[in-house]
Amino acid sequence: MTDKKRPISPVNGEVEHEIIKKPNNGNGNHKNNKKIIKRKYKAKDVDPTAPLGVLQFEIDEILSNHQLTREDITNNMSGILNDETIQKIYHRIVSDVTIESLSSNGDGLALIPHPDPTKKFQIVIVPFGLPGDKVEIRVFKSHPLYAESDLLNIIQASEYRDDSLINCKYFGKCSGCQYQNVNYDQQLIFKRKTIENAYKFLAPLLSATKGALPSVRSTEPSPLQYKYRTKLTPHFNIPFKKVVEERPNLGFGSKGRPTWRKDVDIKDGSILDIEECVIGTPIINQGMTNERARFSQEFKKYKKGATILLREDTKVIDKDEEIILAPGSGSTDVNGEISHLQSQLPEKQLVKTCVTASRQIVKEYVDGYTFEFSAGEFFQNNNSILPRVIDYVRSNLSIDENDAKDSNYLVDAYCGSGLFSITCSQNVSKVIGVEVSADSVKFAERNAASNKIENAKFIVGKAEEIFKSIDTPADRTSVILDPPRKGCDDVFLNQLSDYNPAKIVYISCNVHSQARDVDWFINKTDNGNKYYVESIKGFDFFPQTHHVESVAVLALKKQD
Ligand SMILES: C[S@@+](CC[C@H](N)C(=O)[O-])C[C@H]1O[C@@H](n2cnc3c(N)ncnc32)[C@H](O)[C@@H]1O
């Protein structure tokens, strides 16, 4: 077994202040010993699977496409940080900038002429720029290998740009959505490219081996492309030690100071004041209206900034049952009434409210199953796509289609409140779910009982220790992995390999850590080379944004 650690790369940095004392002039008068503060750029280690880490690969790709070296594009950080004249040369308006590609974060990337005549080009990030756009930008911040900019004007629109599709007045300034002006089919193509790039950048061994990676399947669309988010977390700031007279903005973070949307006038600020979020579900937006009204009355009571939780709760009741909303069970309107919305199913009705207390228990209705969990705990945020992803995961768990269910088992590592364990339990004789949050495990057990699932057992613990307590025969067991953004750690992947299950279905909200883990698992663990990547497919959990969920299926190679 290998104990090699995966590398982290120095990509980005922060500004540090170095205090330099002017030398004593020898006259013994220490009052004259002025201090000079020199600003220094200090590189920080960044996880290569985080957006700034991925940017490093994207920069290298642009360099290689243009036969440039890093030396050709570096910025004079010491000059920019310590000399205003140099800073002004760098932080400038540039016109006729052609966007070349998209970053994994959905920002445009471009090459612009370098302000230093001894260099060739600068790489610049242009949020809301689309490949092929010709734009005007303001460069406002520099890093050693790239600069940040605001989009000022679209000079010539890219073939991907259709601004008539924009649904939100805050689009183009809010940091939440990147693709409202891209038609939905194209958004899905962009996301597929993100997955392809993730494997190219972070699975170098698999990428270098012919046939080791299947072509990435087309991205599964979300049935709802707007009004799908069942959770939003608007926030506000209160200036330190200040009495606030005017209600602070309540909403979401802004992305720089772009001015490209000429038809809307939005007040600048690091947090935008947002009344409605077009990707939130109707009841979440009703909750937003209620909580904004309350905040307008109460903002003077706050001493510091905070985040407001808005989480959809769905009660399933009989078709003719009277709707009873318990006091305190949801966000209330200006009349003190709990806001709710109903919808009809053939046999039942769904009653939706918006919960704001993180410890309150909420319910989701997914494909005929109900799930309860604490409002503040993890649960997938796009209910509309869940039946599709569950169906796909379920169909990929099967070890051998001819086998009876009695002889197959399922391990659901990182199981949360049991979404996959419960919905995938029918085709196996036993499910074991593992989850680090005791609260989520409590709900997983409760959800199994309420959905009448009798073959599921849940363990509180780290996935890294899971295999001590698993006694199912590995050759009849499939494993679901659905870790947080950072992915799985080496200890877990080594143990998974030692366990040597028949099938692995890896679901991930960060395809970059997924690609890194899959590469590591297959190439660096003891049994990894017994597996191949059967399929990779994206699911669009977050339309209008750059995010993509990726499902990779690993199967054992057939023995000769
Ligand atoms: C992306 S969520 C997936 C949850 C679940 N599969 C679902 O779809 O609702 C990741 C889950 O992993 C849990 N988790 C984080 N680190 C863990 C670890 N080391 N071992 C086990 N579970 C962990 C989190 O508490 C969270 O519930």
Explain this structure to me?
The chain has 560 residues and is α+β, with helices and mostly antiparallel strands. It folds into 3 domains: 9-159, Nucleic acid-binding proteins (OB fold (Dihydrolipoamide Acetyltransferase, E2P), Beta Barrel); 185-224 and 383-556, Rossmann fold; 231-255 and 268-374, no CATH class. It is built from 12 helices and 25 strands. The chain has an 8-stranded mixed beta sheet, sandwiched between helices. A 5-stranded mixed β-barrel has the order 3-4-5-7-6. Strands 9-14-16-15 form a 4-stranded antiparallel beta sheet. Helix 5 (184-202) packs parallel to helix 12 (511-524). The model is unreliable at 1-11 (pLDDT under 50).
Question: CATH topology of the largest domain, anyone?
Answer: Rossmann fold
Q: State the CATH superfamily name of the largest domain.
A: Vaccinia Virus protein VP39
Strand content: 25-35%
The major beta sheet can be summarized as: 8 strands, mixed
Average residue-wise pLDDT: 92
First-residue to last-residue Cα separation: 25 Å
Per DSSP, the total helix count is: 12
Q: Order of strands across the widest beta sheet?
A: 8-24-25-23-22-19-20-21
CATH class term of the largest domain: Alpha Beta
Q: Which parts are unreliable, with pLDDT below 50 for 5 consecutive residues or more?
A: 1-11
SS elements, strand count: 25
- Classify the secondary structure makeup into a structural class: alpha+beta
Q: Over the alpha carbons, how many angstroms does the gyration radius reach?
A: 26 Å
Instruction: List bound small molecules.
Output: S-adenosylmethionine
